[in-house]
Write a structure and sequence with these properties.
The chain is an alpha/beta fold. The protein has a single domain, classed as Maf protein, CATH 3.90.950. It has six helices and seven strands, in the order E-H-E-H-E-H-E-E-E-E-H-H-H. It has helices spanning 13-22, 49-64, 98-108, 173-179, 181-191, 193-206; strands at residues 4-8, 28-32, 68-77, 116-126, 132-143, 159-161, 166-167. A seven-stranded mixed sheet has the order 2-1-3-4-5-6-7. Helix 1 (13-22) links the parallel strand 1 and strand 2. The protein is elongated and about 60 Å long.
């Protein structure tokens, strides 16, 4: 039985290698958008992380005719009613830099006592038609009153993780991967991947895919 191709909806080589390592024990070939030609842009206009992740996965599954995996993530702050949320990357404007977003967030919370926040990551897997599978990871923490640490990206310098008494930007990559929202979502995906493969093969077989490898006959 030949390995199942799955397209990761990114051109990020680091994310691609991370997923390949995570699923190395499974009969799957991970490709990314860089293995194909120009792709249509996907407007992330959903109201939730799940809506955006599912939309991206479905779009590229339909365009490429292959199973696709996509994720969406961001920071939710209790005192801001869940903002920045799905607008995390563009909180301070459409082309805002990380520093701009962090500065705006700290300003918004300048006089706020409730600093509770959570990083959320949703991973969606889709075939060219029908429903998608969804996995979610969540990491609870607090927003600091100033930026601390030089590692990471995004809101890492202002997200304090109480169990380790550090911001995400003060953690080593290994420490962050163990506790992060993305790490949790990927861990859940790996634990369920036997079932995911069965579901994908079932859906694709219904569409006429052949799984016997001719080279083995």
């Amino acid at each position: 039985m030949r390995p199942l191709p799955v397209v990761l909806a990114t051109r990020n080589a680091g994310k691609t290698e991370e997923l390949r390592r995570l699923l190395a024990d499974f009969p799957v070939v991970i490709r990314n958008l860089g293995d194909f030609g120009p792709m249509p842009p996907v407007e992330e206009d959903g109201m939730t992380f799940e809506e955006n992740a599912v939309k991206k996965a479905r779009t590229f599954a339909k365009v490429l005719g292959l199973p696709a995996l996509a994720d969406d993530s961001g920071l939710t702050v209790d005192a801001l009613g869940g903002a920045p949320g799905v607008r995390s990357a563009r909180y301070a404007g459409e082309h805002a830099a990380d520093a701009d977003n962090n500065t705006k967030l700290l300003k918004e919370l300048e006089h706020e006592a409730n600093r509770a926040a959570a990083f959320v990551c949703v991973i969606a897997i889709a075939v060219p038609w029908g429903p998608a599978l969804v996995y979610e990871g969540r990491c609870e923490g607090m927003v600091t009153r100033e930026q601390m640490g030089t590692r990471g990206f995004g809101y890492d310098p202002v997200f304090f993780y109480p169990p380790l008494q550090k911001t995400f930007a003060q953690l080593t990559p290994e420490e962050k991967n163990q506790v992060s929202h993305r790490g949790q979502a990927l861990k859940e995906l790996r634990q369920e991947f036997d079932k995911v493969l069965f579901w994908l093969r079932q859906r694709l077989t219904e569409a006429g895919w052949e799984w016997d490898d001719p080279s083995q006959s």
